[in-house]
Amino acid sequence: MNSLDNNSASRDLQPTTTSTPSYNLHDPHRRKALGALGLFGLAGAAGLISCGGGSSGSNSTGTSSATTSSSTTSSSATTSSIATSSSSSGSGSCVVIPTETIGPYPLSTLLDNSLILRENIAEDKTGVPLQVKLKLVNVNNSCTPVSAYVYIWHCDKDGNYSGYTTEVGKTYCRGIQYTDTDGVASFTTVYPGWYAGRITHIHFQIFLTNYGSNAQSSKISQMAFPQDITRAVYNSTLYTKGQNTSVTSFATDNVFSDGVEYQLATVTGSVSDGYVAELEVGLAL
User: Fold this and answer.
1) What is the CATH topology of the domain spanning 18-283?
2) C-alpha span between 125 and 155 (Å, rounded)
3) Where are the alpha helices (DSSP H) in 120-263?
4) What distance in Å separates the CA atoms of residue 207 and residue 16, rounded to the nearest whole number?
5) Angle at 264 between CA 262 and CA 268, to 5 degrees
6) Distance CA 214, CA 209 (A)
7) pLDDT of 50-97, one tens digit each?
């Protein structure tokens, strides 16, 4: 592990290998600063979900077959849909978000590859469509928007992280975006699965000026999901592992057991149409 990983052993399970000899990023475009996508319909999120890790907006390079796969993914998730749901006291509260462990799977060396600057991070992964929107605000300056690079990573629907164990050389469910004028960084992905020892979550890391494996980040934290939403997703046929039998509540999770209020996303949508997860990230700058 590099210097960013020095606290990864504190509360998460450890990987069996960290070798990352090469990466297969599908997006051919290089951009130094990307404006995050504005809010768009959930159907749009579903249509973008398997675009081969392309950049946002019209620069997406997904093939027609990937788009078809996305439609199949969304329609094949059979369960009773939750029309809308919201559960987050942190959203709009202008409170400094807690710092959390970076965990054992940051794949920080990937930050040295500018191709990781992308909005669509699903690559070829299937699952319930998910758009993630992180809004950065400065709690020391009347909660004004913050300009920064945001790196997120999470496991796929089966609980696997790209770049580790059997997934060495892969880069799915990882990406960086630069916040827009409202301080929002947006990503298109799939709803995360689960693995032993953790409740459903997404990791994120914030870099104020530049990013890289040796860059100093200003915040490392994690986003949680309302449990009713997660249960609905895991009831769908796409998530063959079913419900999380390892950690069944925030109180028993080794990261969120001390409180989840300011890390719990506001989630809207349905299993059939996809979800939008929004979280306000308060920074003391």
Assistant:
1) Protocatechuate 3,4-Dioxygenase, subunit A (2.60.130)
2) 10
3) 227-234
4) 28
5) 135
6) 13
7) 433 333 333 333 333 333 333 333 333 333 333 344 343 344 589 999
